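Before the break, one more example. Copy the sequence into your notebook; we will annotate it together after we see the structure.
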Amino acid sequence: MDFGLILAYGAFAIFGLAGVLLIVQGISRLRLAARTRAWASTLGMVVESRVKQDFIGDAINYQPLVRYTFSYRGQEFESDQIFIGSKFFTTPSKALPYVHRYPEGRSVRVYYDPQDPSQSFLETGRSSRIYIDFVIGLGLIGVALVILMVLNA
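Here is what the structure looks like once it is written out:
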């Protein structure tokens, strides 16, 4: 078997597996989103709110960093989870609405899992950001299938 063929089958496997894993992650996030609708809520306080830059290779991603605290049964919790799904944006202007919605010092409604209060969000249910895993996963599976079709041609 020549090296090019091994490389092509390897690429097929990597793209296909990555696609499947992203779709499984998406399903897990959809299930979590459904469960959050029944979670308890309490008041919390935003202690930090800003747009954070993350560098991945040459790309810059922007993330709304909204850190908040809340109490449950006398214990203090802190989280930065706003919603379920990807918090990375390609421009700061897309992350800013979350920072403006949850400014530092504001009292906010926090939704938490009564079985595990360390798991909390400011927004429950499905957000459009939850479907990013599915779209990328399907795209990767599509690439894997194209590679397979080329190999079998």
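The mean pLDDT is 90. The longest helix spans residues 3-36. Try to locate both features in your own notes.
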